[in-house]
Input
Amino acid sequence: MDFRMFRPINIVALGRMCWAALTVAILITVSTAEVQAQTYNVRPGDTLRIEVLEDPSLNRSVLVAPDGRISIPSAGNVQAAGQTIDSLQRVVTDRLASNFASPPNVFVSLERLYEPSTALGELATEPTISVYLVGEVGRPGVLEVPPGTNILQLFSMTGGFSNFAATKRIQLRSVDLQAGTQTIRTLNYKAIEAGGTGGLTTLRDGDIVVVPQRRLFE
Output
């Protein structure tokens, strides 16, 4: 057999080819993710990540409330549902611009998609109700809790409050869809900690707990 027919493998060239293929695959993945972020419309229940380069104290994860809005310190309530990530980023930048000498560098990303607790066609092993946590809490989002859970038990799941939290003005919003009405009850967390009866308030499916931003001299 004439071994001259077989050429030696060029390890360097092979390595370069593999690296090039890997780079192309990464670029395709990144490009796909960017396109999805540009075309995806934010929905209620999604969790977004807000980061402000000039003021890290504003960095936070925010839940898109059932009414489609998010709450950001120094920017107030912003309509998020129905917008793309890029358009929402521009809106937040505009809202915050007056607080800086020049337009801030704001980055908005989709941290977590809203996913119903029960997959289609499956039955939950235990019944739960959906409660929305919005505002200055450690873990905003939709919590699936057992029926009969009270407000004090819910607070134990929030991951604490942010430095901006107005804990004396927490709102519990209960919506009656049939009557088309909304009941708002104001709760004082410190009074609840001290043994106030407000902590025993039983939550209902669809309740929204809003922890607002603290005012300047509050």
